[in-house]
């Protein structure tokens, strides 16, 4: 189901790029559809980045790397969970490889790095995960199908209260903009039903041992 949804997103992005960037599309129609990928396959964010890479590959394999009668050429790049590398790879994909759109990016700082550049280059980008509220309002040509990170977790807060029956919650998350955004959406949904957040703990992004935080959880 996720792979089929991805193909829908790719197709819609291609339609949008054809309408908005018709001059470039006229040339692209004569050859394959080039899909660039910016994946955090190594580095601290590698778990999510590898999943993003495999989801794109799976989706393309299921349709034989062809859509609407045109061949799909997938050019995936490892950004090593580094926003500077993300910028370098984005420039390569756009200026050297001449891709039609870019996907696969899951790194919040990576979007900050490439946002102004892809806007200047009129390059449509599919966000594999949600954007922060700030990024969603930045005016970049990025489509986050799940909305902002807060929007994607709001219903989780409702579910925790309505279905799971939770009334009090202690939060433990990374001390990063995207993590606080995800938690913010959950909190808004949970509190809208009458739930209570009794504790919030935020650990540095590079934290590997959470035991000091776990033993502080209150009930």
Description:
The protein has 219 residues and is an alpha/beta fold. Helix content is 49%, strand content 19%. It has helices at residues 2-20, 22-28, 46-62, 83-96, 108-120, 133-136, 149-162, 177-192, 211-214, and strands spanning 33-39, 66-67, 70-78, 101-103, 125-127, 142-144, 168-174, 196-203. The strands form three sheets. It has a four-stranded mixed β-sheet, with helices on both faces. A two-stranded parallel sheet has the order 5-6. Strands 7-8 form a two-stranded parallel ribbon. Strand 2 (66-67) and strand 3 (70-78) form a beta hairpin. Helix 1 (2-20) packs across helix 2 and helix 7 (149-162) runs parallel beside helix 8 (177-192). The relative contact order is 0.11. Mean pLDDT is 88; it is low at 1-28.
SSE layout and pairing:
Elements: H1 2-20, H2 22-28, E1 33-39, H3 46-62, E2 66-67, E3 70-78, H4 83-96, E4 101-103, H5 108-120, E5 125-127, H6 133-136, E6 142-144, H7 149-162, E7 168-174, H8 177-192, E8 196-203, H9 211-214
Parallel strand pairs: 1-3, 1-4, 5-6, 7-8
Antiparallel strand pairs: 2-3
Q: Tell me the fraction of residues in β-strands, as a range.
A: 15-25%
* N- and C-termini, Cα separation: 38 Å
Number of strands: 8
What class would the helix/strand composition place it in?
A: alpha/beta
Q: Residue share in helices?
A: 40-55%
Number of helices: 9
Overall pLDDT: 88
Strand order of the largest sheet: 2-3-1-4
What kind of sheet is the major sheet? 4 strands, mixed
Radius of gyration: 19 Å
Low-confidence stretches: 1-28
What general form does the structure show?
elongated
Note the run of SSEs as H and E.
HHEHEEHEHEHEHEHEH
